[in-house]
Amino acid sequence: MKRTFENTETKTVVTNIFNEADEKMVEHLLRKMIGVGEDVELDDNLKETPHRVLKLWTEMTEGYREDPAKHLEKSFPINSPNLADDENSFDSNTTPTKFQKGIVVVSTDAWSNCCHHLAPMHCRVDVAYIPGEKVVGLSKIVRTVKAYGKRLNLQEAWGENIANAMMNKLNALGCMVRISGIHSCVSMRGAQEQTSKTTTMAIRGCFAEDVKARMEAISMMDKNELN
Question: H or E stretch including 135?
């Protein structure tokens, strides 16, 4: 399997992960799958579907071809004024403290696919952390969440990976990740339960040790509104 990709500032752009023979084989199998009861070659809507599916799955599995935690590598001193325009001239010893190690909560909407049926799951992901000596840009947390989502996941493992990355890269005092999701493998097949929702939590550091801090973080997560 050929994996040709390039890193950009915002994402990993995949150009091709299959050699030509593998690509033709996968497209052939997809054509046979959707060709049951349909003449794929005569339907203009279906002719290019195998190729489009291949591209879709290449994009949805980008999380295997990058380290999602890399988005957390650029961090800033906790008392940095507006994250400091010039990091080299910034002196944390002479700058008044701007942030007193309170709880930071970032909520985002994200997709992944379950590792059992390859079926989509649509989730709200809340990430709370208490910084140690450094903070990270809020968008970097969102990028980390979505990058780990571009793998075949157990919902539990998705949250564990995010929490571990936050603790390891930022030396956070505590981290908590709550994921609430609707799994199409439950709603579309099997139980066919349309209203079922699954919530999991990964808890680290002081959130695991301090019930009051944990409940405060959960309260902040509940108050974060997503349109």
Answer: strand 134-136
Three-state secondary structure along 3-25? Answer: CEEEECCCCEEEEECCCHHHHHH
- How far apart, in whole angstroms, are the C-alpha atoms of residue 221 and residue 108? 11
Whether the CA torsion 29, 32, 35, 36 is positive or negative: it is negative
pLDDT digits (tens, 9 = 90+) for 76-93: 887 765 544 444 443 434
Q: Which residues contact 70 (CB under 8 A, 6 or more apart)?
A: none
Tokens 């649509």, located at residue: 122
Burial class of residue 26 (count of CB atoms within 10 Å of its CB; 0-12, 13-18, 19+)? middle
What pLDDT is recorded for position 214? 94
Other Cβ atoms closer than 10 A to 83: 15
Tell me if residue 164 falls in helix, strand or coil: helix
Question: DSSP 3-state assignment of 115?
Answer: coil
List, in order, residues 6 or more apart from 202 with CB less than 8 Å away. 156, 159, 160, 162, 163, 175, 176, 177
Q: Are strands 152-153 and 174-183 parallel, antiparallel or unpaired?
A: unpaired
Token pair of 209 as six digits = 């040790």
